[in-house]
Amino acid sequence: MSASQIVVIGGGVVGASAAYQLTRDGLPVVLVDANDEGQATAAGAGVIAPGASLRPLPAFYPFAAKAVRAYPELLASLVDDGEAHTGYEVVGKLFVATDDAEHGRLEETLALFNRRREDGMPNLGAMEILTSEAAQQRFPPLARIAAAISIPEAARVDGALLRDALIAAARKRGARIRQGRA
Hints:
Blueprint: E1 6-9, H1 13-24, E2 29-33, H2 40-43, E3 45-48, H3 60-80, E4 89-90, E5 93-97, H4 100-104, H5 106-118, E6 128-131, H6 132-138, E7 147-151, E8 155-158, H7 159-172, E9 176-179
Parallel strand pairs: 1-2, 2-9
Antiparallel strand pairs: 3-8, 4-8, 5-7, 6-7
């Protein structure tokens, strides 16, 4: 390895994305990953709907909006590099109220999500409050609930598939992949 190479430590979705972007910029990259079982990237569904969350701090949303808007460009670039299988799909999301107290806050929650959409948060769509029956029609395995907000443009990604596509595309662009600890 020469002194002019960039070493990315960690081959999860963040490290793989960094390696891919660096190779797109023509930079020499070595990606080092221990390939441990149970990595966060492969552990769960990657729900892409930051505007429909109640947890993050307000400063998070401008960053999250930019990240969501970057997905189409990233996916198109991966397709151009022959890596179309990322597990990304717009599937919608239900924000569920399980009891009367949560149901009583849904109008306020919907108003918050709509303000975020109006402020530029992508991938929310025309949201609406659904009855329990309407929510179950959209997602039959859903247990009886009080009500739900439908968020039709929410997406998900399979982190393992996206990581694999990023690494394969980075490798095609000259990245070297090393298994081990750094």
